[in-house]
What we know:
Strand content: under 5%
Oligomer: single chain
Largest sheet: none
Helix content: over 70%
Number of strands: 0
Number of helices: 6
Amino acid sequence: MVVFHLGEKPQRLLCSTLCYQTKSNIKNNTMKTAQSFNNDAAAKATTAKSLSKLYFTRVGFSVVWVTLVALYAAKSPQVAAILLIIYPAWDVVGTFGDIRINKANGPVTPQYANAIISIITTFAVGVALNSGVPNALIVFGVWAGLTGIIQLVLGLQRRRELGGQWPMILSGGQSVLAGISFIAFAHKPTMGIANLAGYSAFGAFYYLLAAIRLSKTTSVANTQAI
């Protein structure tokens, strides 16, 4: 067997080549990791910013709705009926906005479930109103409870990814309790309608807190993406 020995210079050349390749690979991997991190941070910032805008919009709607309830609902059954139908219908719009924002980030099954429940509730409230406001309040109470559970689940899921979700978690729990109260006081329409105003006002407050928290998340994520 013939054994070939490399001279000193070829050995140095081979060592230099291998070292260069190793450093180059490390540099490329580091750059890829940094790019991936920046992309994730940018995507997180975009999602947080869009959700924040959606939440601020929902706050604005709730403020208008509560104002109308406070001014007219107790005096006019017709206005109360319209407001009862509008609220779950608006929730459908808001939920589809949420789906559009989060569709690329993973499963949106809870949001679709929420949208379906709200669509059914919108029509169910309209039908129930033919039998009186108490029946409509019972339907509304069931809807508030179910959507509160979904909101609670979503808040817990998003807390791991985006943070700033504890107001949504509290809002989900409060919605469940509010739904129970709507059903309990359904046959006292004046009190039930007053509960509706309080329910929406608390919802607006929680959405406002969540929007502010997400705005902070956006700032942090944008800093990380730089």
